[in-house]
Design goal:
Elements (H helix, E strand, L loop, with lengths): L1 E4 L10 E4 L9 E11 L1 H7 L16 E9 L11 E5 L8 E5 L3 E3 L6 H5 L2 H14 L7 E4 L5 H12 L3 E6 L2 H10 L3 E4 L5 H8 L7 E4 L4 H7 L7 E4 L13 H6 L2 E4 L2 H7 L1 H16 L7 E6 L3 H9 L6 E5 L2
Helix pairs in contact: 3-4, 3-10, 9-10
């Protein structure tokens, strides 16, 4: 097997493509031949030693992938050799093969392409948990999605529309705003050329959004929260801007608003039955054509560094996926 190995987490340039022995699965594990792996923002942070999860060195980055099971370990009865699965295990995806805990593998129904499957779990699970569980989004409410042209933003638009909400998508270019409208956004804001607060005021007739979906952080968080509606819910999803913002707590008092943390990974660990039901619903929505990841581009696994560069340049609309021949 071959894999991108991180032996020193100082950045993407330190990654090396190496030939390694193909491992045998231990108890509770499966060996997966990887067909596709998607690039997520944590995959950049983890090789820079900036992510909250710090794996033991050396490690293979790549949190999310899909492929075919080639071997199963002792005690694995729910999966079998030849079965197609998707997995989000945190590491291991940027390779030709990986070992994964069987309990983290999601069996794929017929007709679920590996490229879509590799770009599915993290973004849709995060947005479903954020909007419908933590945000308690209701039909008729207005949602502001920041960073709306990215992976989680894309999924948030689609899920909010399924819930019957009005979606205002905010992105950094006119091209990205047009992409958000293609996904179903009702209105868009280009926050590079338009004042976020003034535009929100105009679009909501001064009421402000009911729910703010914020995977960006940075300077836009406070501007968005100052615009939130009465009893609004500001969902803290991530910090793609690189800066963790601070908000004066009196703003929550004045607005009667809530700042709500979203940590899907821990939700899945602490509430596995609820997470399994959620994933079943998401797979059903995919089968019905209600949700579908938009793939910015597919790139060969060997071009991982170029994929990182594209993501870091903020050019990506939807998801980047690396594929093995």
């Amino acid at each position: 097997m071959h894999a991108w190995l991180c032996e020193d987490p100082v950045g993407v340039d330190a990654l090396t493509w190496k030939e390694l022995p193909t491992p045998a699965p231990a108890k509770g594990q499966v060996l997966i031949r990887i067909q596709a792996a998607s690039l997520n923002f944590p995959d950049l942070l983890i090789v820079q030693n900036k992510y909250q999860f710090k794996p033991e060195l050396p490690f293979v980055p790549g949190s999310e992938y899909a492929g075919v099971i080639e071997a199963v370990g002792e005690g694995v009865t729910e999966l079998k050799v030849g079965q197609m699965v998707a997995c989000l295990s945190g590491t291991g995806g940027f390779a030709t093969h990986t070992l994964a805990p069987a309990k983290l593998c999601m069996p794929l129904p017929p007709g679920f392409p590996p490229v879509d499957a590799a770009a599915f779990i993290m973004i849709y699970a995060t947005s479903h948990h954020a909007l419908l569980d933590r945000g308690q989004l209701k039909a008729g409410e207005t949602v502001l999605v920041l960073g709306a042209a990215g992976g989680v933003g894309m999924s948030a638009i689609q899920i909010a529309k399924i819930a019957g909400a009005r979606v205002i998508a905010a992105a950094s270019t006119d091209d990205k705003c047009a992409f958000c409208q293609q996904l179903g956004a009702d209105e868009t804001i280009n926050y590079s050329t338009q004042d976020l607060r003034e535009r929100l005021k105009a679009l909501t007739e001064g009421k402000g959004p009911d729910v703010i979906y914020d995977p960006v952080g940075g300077a836009f968080t406070e501007a968005a929260f100052r615009s939130i509606g009465w009893r609004g819910r500001h969902l803290v999803v991530g910090f793609a801007a690189g800066e963790i913002p601070s908000i004066k707590i009196n703003l929550a008092l004045i607005k009667g608003a809530s700042i709500v943390g979203v940590f899907w990974g821990d939700f899945a660990r602490r509430e596995p039955a609820a997470n399994a039901a959620m994933m079943q619903e998401l797979v059903g929505w995919y089968a019905q054509g209600k949700i579908k990841p938009q793939i910015d581009r597919q790139m060969p696994m060997g071009e991982l560094k170029a994929a990182y560069a594209r993501m870091n340049s903020r050019q990506v609309r939807g998801k980047l996926v690396l594929v093995n021949d």
